Amino acid sequence: MKARRVMLRIVLALIAVFVLLAGAVVALNLRGEDPVSDARPEDFVASPGQVERGRYLALAGNCAGCHTARGGAAYAGGRGIETPFGTLYTSNLTPEPLTGIGLWNADHFWRAMHNGRSRDGRLLYPAFPYTSFTQMTREDSDAIYAWLRTLPPAAQANRAHTLAFPYDTQAALAVWRAIFFSPGRFEAQPQRSAEWNRGAYLVGGLGHCIACHGSRNSLGATDAARGLVGGMLPGENWYAPALDAASEAGVAGWDTNEVVALLKTGRTAHASVLGPMAEVVYRSTQYLSDADLRAMAVYLQALPEAPVAPPAPAVRRNDTVLQRGEKIYAQQCAWCHGERGEGVAGTFPPLAGNRAVNMRNASNLVQVVRRGGFLPATEGNPQPYGMPPFGHLIEDADIAAVLSYVRASWGNTGAEVTQREAMQR
Length: 425
Description:
mainly alpha, Cytochrome Bc1 Complex, Chain D, domain 2, 3-stranded antiparallel sheet, two-stranded antiparallel sheet, 18 helices
């Protein structure tokens, strides 16, 4: 009888703890939420200037990049976002009432952007980067909402996510949010210039640069405290280089005009964008005003520089691999990049001394050789040269060999690329 009472007390205590924890999770997921009115969407009257501003802000946030599937209607969703936990499909943002956001009012849209909660109360997955958008102002949220309401309605049903258990449950998402997400607002730093603050707002909020250029933990949460330290893009095998390191993609030592040019055209005299960043320039940054691009440049140039990593210990290189790579380079690469990796000014980038070649993470080099490297077509660079893919011509071992040769030649100091690294698809 006594043992039964002890067991009952333990069970009741566990139930009490569970109830307290569940209550805490619910409370944490409701923090910072503004009341949602029952206003009708058609009651929202936007000025032409507000609509135009919304169009511009949607470009700044590269909304179409995720919410437009290849070959699909603009902003109708359906694009798959690969994650370590499964695939999420982007939603329909057109004002279609049944499948889009036609029944959403401005409060619903603001709550989604600021708090990561849908019109029906469901918690949204952070593949939709509300963890960054939470810094946006209500004014900017309303402007984007105003512009989205002018789009042609597209009756395209939203695809169900294909996530593994328990990541497909609202309960698991609620726990994740309770631990890793807190709604916030952009706080200007008075000791900084207005230009720097504008750049911080664009880079940290609307531009959500940390979504690619930040590190993520095992549960997919970005580490805001570490900042733009670089990270792998889930499901793509591209590496977004650190923006605070001169050895990767830091721009502290650049002329500000060069940073603006890179974001505007996709290339400068000594750098160009490829892969996912080429898409960002193509769909987003090339359309931004010079003032906003300069603000972003000023902010990026002022990032605290990461400590210079100690030089990697010298490794004995495999001469057989290097000889094999040299032969492949002479046959396939020297035509454009030169016998000594000198490139052709303004056309083909040099490989000698190229920091993209020397980065510790060689993932991008593998992807460029395998898939090709294509700059975005922009007003400032309307007919860019591109590198054709070689994945169908040379085997994984040959990709590893030629990249190992390039990273060891003409003063380059990159480590060998292993065959396992070259197998990235």
